[in-house]
Design brief:
By secondary structure, the chain is α/β, with parallel strands linked by helices. About 35% of the residues lie in helices and about 15% in strands.
Length: about 450
Amino acid sequence: MPARLGDHKGRPYPEIGNLLRIFHIVHQYMPEHVGGTELYAQTLAHYQIQAGHSVALFCPSGYPPSETPEPQNEDGLRVYRAGIGPHGRSQVFRNTFAHKQLDRAFAAVLAQENPDIIHIHHLMGLPFSLIDRITAVSVPIVITLHDYWYGCANGQLVTNYDGAICPGPSKTYLNCGRCAVARSGKQNLRWLAPAAAPLMAYRNGRLRRIIAQANAVIAPTCFVQQIYREMGISGDNIIHIQHGIEVPQQEIDALLSQKTPRPPDTLHIGYIGSLGRPKGVHNLITAVNQLPRDGVKLTLYGGLDAFPDYVAQLQQDAQHPGIHFAGRVAREKIWGELANLDILVMPTLWYEASPLTIQEAFAVKTPILASRIGAMPEKITHNVDGLLVPPNDTAALRDSLLALLRDPSLLPRLQAGIQPVYTMAEQVKEIEALYGKFV
């Protein structure tokens, strides 16, 4: 019997192994936004296309407003960018509650695509009504938790008012109200927090129902699963499937064969990611400033325009001659840049959910020095394939870098401890098996 694309209205769902119509939803997408969630969604979609499935993706966009987005074919992926014009952080928050234009655009695309299954990567800035549209046509839903947004409007469990890690909403949601006021830029109006708290409670109530309605919710790490449980968001539908990455093995083998031994008394340190305060880059710069002036390099890869005030402070604080702000690294160059490093540092101050950079570094046998926080200890084994230090401890960070510089046996031992990474090809099989339970 030939494979078919599922027109499930009034007919049985296709069995797993047959071709599916898969519809991904993400809160933003390339080229306007390039981040871990966007790259993951793109990679997963393209693997599914290679398997023969019909795949589409829907996202809001800063494009001119449009209620009937036309699909753009991007290597077989139909991308629907629903233009809503420029939108800042406050507008994105308000859109969660209602946005008639996005709702109508999604309804049109949903009817056109007629999917067998919908995979939600993020709903930030997308109205609750989208879920009502989906449930009205009885399409199975799978959600991937890329951060903590369903329990925290910031997504990071970091407060807007003092930058501290937050355990999640309090019973009264007063802390969420305070965060909402600070997010609006009206920090001096803290007395408005009690008025904002009911709105935050309503928001979280709606999102908890969305989680409960989903056929399956994927947590990429056990840590993420535990945090949601601690926020009171748990259920049998939340399962753990780790993220995979696409591994261009031939390119990586060529890079590793060309790599030369590290000269004595040298260390090339790297950072790749957002140059924002929760990432702790200021602590890395402080630590590197205290290292020997000769033989030490720190290359910082990350956009300089997202947080200009913070970046300006970083540049002012960078006193070591080996510190270089390299800007964003092109995706096709990521493997070469990672392979050129002796150590990748991730000095994060927040609960990273499951950064793909860890697996990318490990794929090219580059060890990682990271903060012992969030999912980091789940992904990095101290003194085996990397080193872990307390978060926000610049002295410990400096001492670990000095150990790598002074002990010639430490880095090779960590490199030898790196195990093969979990690939996207392996994860796609798990996700397809998961889809098969509902279609």
